[in-house]
Write a structure and sequence with these properties.
The protein is of the alpha/beta class. It contains 17 helices and 11 strands. The structure holds iron/sulfur cluster (SF4).
Length: 402
């Protein structure tokens, strides 16, 4: 598996893109996690993987989306983005996840990427704005990987994403990325209407045949203003996803990303471990994208390192989540999320200003943590990578693994 994946990447990715992913993401990203661990020992938390939603606008209307895509545009200006990345870089960071809305609708996106040739960016996109020209620019820059979301067959894509001809337009953008030899991924939010089609060997083979290099299976999270509880996966399906991912990682020449399990298959929350936090389109610093509350903003004059590391709000969220569950505090304990937001007098960071009411309306449910169903990694590459760079960092001590 590893040799055919390696040879596929080496022969189908542009040399500059390869060099940037190896150095900016592989080497420097790994080093940023080691620095994160060193800081943790001193009780200082600054996330090595910062996710930034650079604007709220989007051309699609996905089921269950919690971003205010129909509200007037909020976008983080270029100066603020540059200052944020520069400040994070001074503290050893090199990797940034860029989200929206649809990030390619931000008029300064390519300029922003060009300002940071020594960093690496993962662009969460529906792919529809990636024309041949845009893909060529990304190739020249070399420091970004598009992660294109595909949510199912033609009819499922239209239904889930609220527009017509979604799949064709998305596949066109994906094709442009692959034609320009970008390191390219496909992300899917698994739910009841696409799990049978997309959690399958046939789908992975189709991605491989297209030339896609990696995929990321999220699971649909029923949070926000337009919850579709009927789409959520059942606990046995969450276990099915984990089994499929670990077994196919060992067999198929495509990398499969996940963010919710360590090398032993124990569940974790990237917010609770502190490895990742989120910045909203207004610059609000949120624990994670689905917790839309904040007490601080990246525009704070102190700079983001000082702001993150001195945040009592973020600390309380990390500690409370780690104390109560290895899974998702939002899905399992919306009452705790509300209590923390109220305790800290946190601002509702949504335009709609209904975040508390949304928590009140949620029914607690199972998340990625299905106790006694741990499924360890099978392939040594994932085992080693997670063992050193992606695990729970000891934050769940006292929970006895549960
Ligand atoms: S709180 Fe839930 S949605 Fe947020 S990072 Fe943790 S597991 Fe993911």
């Amino acid at each position: 598996m590893i040799f055919s994946l390696g040879s596929r990447i080496l022969t189908t990715v542009d040399p500059l893109c390869l060099a940037k992913v190896a150095w900016n993401f592989g080497f420097k990203g790994g080093r940023s996690v080691l620095l994160f661990q060193q800081r943790m020992k001193k009780g200082v938390y600054f996330p090595p993987f910062l996710y930034v939603s650079i604007l709220n606008s989007c051309n699609l209307r996905c089921q269950g989306c919690w971003v205010d895509v129909e509200a007037p545009r909020n976008a983080i200006d270029l100066d603020t983005l540059n200052r944020t990345v520069n400040n994070a870089r001074e503290h050893g960071n090199s990797f940034f996840g860029i989200l929206g809305g649809e990030p390619f609708m931000h008029p300064g996106l390519l300029d922003f990427l060009a300002q940071h040739p020594d960093c690496y960016f993962q662009l969460f996109t529906n792919g529809q704005f990636i024309t041949e020209k845009v893909a060529k620019s990304l190739r020249q820059l070399g420091n970004a990987t598009p992660l294109v979301s595909v949510e199912g067959s033609t009819s499922v894509s239209d239904e889930r994403r609220g527009k017509k001809d979604v799949l064709n337009k998305t596949l066109r953008g994906l094709r442009n990325c692959l034609d320009q030899k970008l390191l390219t991924g496909v992300a899917t939010s698994l739910c009841q209407t696409n799990i049978d089609d997309l959690l399958s060997v046939e789908w992975l083979q189709k991605l491989i045949d297209m030339g896609v290099h990696y995929t990321w299976y999220h699971t649909y999270r029923p949070v926000g203003p337009k919850i579709s509880p009927e789409l959520a996966l059942r606990p046995e399906q969450i276990t099915q996803v984990r089994k499929f991912v670990t077994s196919q990682r060992a067999k198929m020449p495509i990398a499969i990303v996940d963010a919710y399990y360590d090398h032993n298959g124990k569940a974790l929350c990237p917010m609770a471990t502190g490895i990742s936090h989120h910045v909203s389109p207004t610059g609000a610093i949120e624990p994670c994208p689905s917790i839309q509350f904040a007490t601080e903003n990246i525009k704070d004059e102190r700079g983001i390192y000082e702001t993150f590391t001195s945040s009592a709000f973020l600390k309380d969220f990390r500690d409370t989540a780690a104390k109560h569950t290895r899974g998702c505090i939002v899905l399992e304990r919306p009452d705790l999320v509300k209590a923390l937001a109220l305790k800290h007098g946190a601002a509702d960071t949504t335009v709609r200003q209904t975040a508390i009411a949304e928590l009140d309306s949620m029914t607690p449910r199972t998340s990625q943590w299905v106790p006694d169903e741990e499924i360890p990694e099978k392939h040594w590459m994932y085992k080693v990578a997670k063992r050193f760079f992606y695990h729970d960092f000891g934050v769940y001590q006292g929970m006895d693994g549960k």
